[in-house]
Amino acid sequence: MPSGSAARDYTELPAGDTGSRRATKVVCGPVHVIRPNTQYEGAPEGRLMIHGHRVYFPTRASSLLLRELELDHLRTLPDDWDGYGAETPSEEAISLARMVLDAIHETESAIEPTRVVASAEGGVVVCFARGDRYADIECFNSGEMAFGTRVISTGDIGVFPVESPDHLGDVLRQLAVFLAM
Questions:
Q1: Angstrom distances, CA of residue 91 to CA of 72, 139, 140
Q2: How far apart are CA 103 and CA 105, in angstroms?
Q3: What is the average pLDDT score of the chain?
Q4: 169 exposed, middle or buried (CB, 10 Å; 0-12, 13-18, 19+)?
Q5: CA 35/CA 48 separation, integer angstroms
Q6: Can you tell me the distance from the alpha carbon of 140 to that of 3, in angstroms, rounded to the nearest whole number?
Q7: Are the CB atoms for 89 and 123 separated by under 8 Å?
Q8: Which of 22, 40, 95, 134 could share a disulfide with 48, CB 3.0–4.6 Å?
Q9: In the chain, which segments carry CATH 3.90.1150?
């Protein structure tokens, strides 16, 4: 696992077992080796259920954990990861994106990110989607941030600067209103 990434340990339980615990550690990171039909307890506010090759996240906090794993994976991208000369996300961009995820968790915002991906412009994009509405918060390698909105059915687009990470609470409220329309 790359240095600086936050590994999370889970206690493995046989499927259906709610009592005995074994001391097996499962480290979540960019590459996962898991046993099908095994339940992992210890994820924030709930359980992570692996059934076959599908992973079920029954709680909001667990789905945020998946976004953190996507973010950690971005550290492994090489330069020109998209074949068009895109820069690898910088540690500063990854740190800003982590602040976005932390703000979502801390403010208990009604919105949940749907993906965390590398930006072709150099940085990280935290994506949100609901119905025909899409929004994102882009964290650039330069340390700047912006949020964008798009209504798919009309093609309406908006792009707005984020003055500083201190304003993320306001941005998340605006995105929640936009996505709820």
A1: 10, 11, 10
A2: 5
A3: 75
A4: middle
A5: 12
A6: 21
A7: yes
A8: 40
A9: 77-181
| Continuous segment of H or E residues that includes residue 43 | none
What is the percent of the chain where pLDDT is above 90? 57
Per residue in 82-124, pLDDT tens? 999 999 999 999 999 999 999 998 887 778 899 999 999 999 9
CA 59 – CA 151 distance, rounded (Å): 27
- Tokens 């080796």 belong to 33
Residue 154 φ then ψ, to 5°: -105, -20
Cα distances (angstroms) measured from residue 121 to each of 9, 76, 134, 141 = 33, 17, 18, 9
Look at the domain 77-181 and name its fold.
Aspartate Aminotransferase, domain 1 (3.90.1150)
